[in-house]
Design a protein that fits this description.
Oligomer: single chain
Helix content: over 70%
Order of helices and strands: HHHHH
Strand content: under 5%
Shape: flat
Number of helices: 5
Distance between the termini: 47 Å
Radius of gyration: 14 Å
Number of strands: 0
C-alpha cells in the first residue's frame, strides 16, 4: 500500500514539474544566456522527475498520463518532455537507494548539459 502511495506521489510531483516547465518559455528574459540557463535548469528538474519515476517503479503509462494532463500550446516543449520520459524509462531500475539517486542525478545532469549545448531549439 505504501509503495503505491509513493508511486502516485511521484507521478503527481512529475506532473507538477511538467506543468512548471510548460510555463517556462513564456517567462524568458531578454538575456538569452540567463534565459537558457533557467530553462535548462527547469528541464533538468523535469528529467530528474522522469528518472525518479522510473527508479521508484512508477509505471510509464502513469507518467505519460500525468504528462498528457498538462495543458500547453507549446508542442515542441511537450514533445521534448515526452522524449525525456521515454529516455528515462529506457534506463534500468536499480535496487539500492544510492544507485537510484545516482541515476536520477546523472540523468538530470546529462539533460542539463545537452540543453546548455543545444538548447533543444527552444531559445532563440
Amino acid at each position: 500500500m505504501q509503495t503505491m502511495f509513493k508511486r502516485v506521489k511521484t507521478a503527481i510531483c512529475a506532473a507538477a514539474v511538467f506543468a512548471f516547465v510548460s510555463c517556462t518559455p513564456a517567462q524568458a528574459s531578454t538575456d538569452n544566456s540567463t534565459s537558457q540557463e533557467r530553462m535548462c535548469a527547469t528541464l533538468s528538474e523535469t528529467a530528474g522527475a522522469a528518472m525518479q519515476g522510473n527508479q521508484s517503479g512508477t509505471p510509464l503509462v502513469k507518467m505519460m498520463e500525468a504528462l498528457n494532463k498538462v495543458e500547453s500550446d507549446n508542442t515542441k516543449l511537450r514533445d521534448l518532455m515526452k522524449s525525456f520520459l521515454l529516455d528515462a524509462y529506457s534506463y534500468p531500475r536499480f535496487n539500492t537507494k544510492s544507485f537510484q539517486d545516482k541515476a536520477v542525478v546523472d540523468f538530470s545532469n546529462k539533460k542539463y548539459l545537452e540543453c546548455m549545448k543545444h538548447s533543444f531549439g527552444l531559445v532563440e
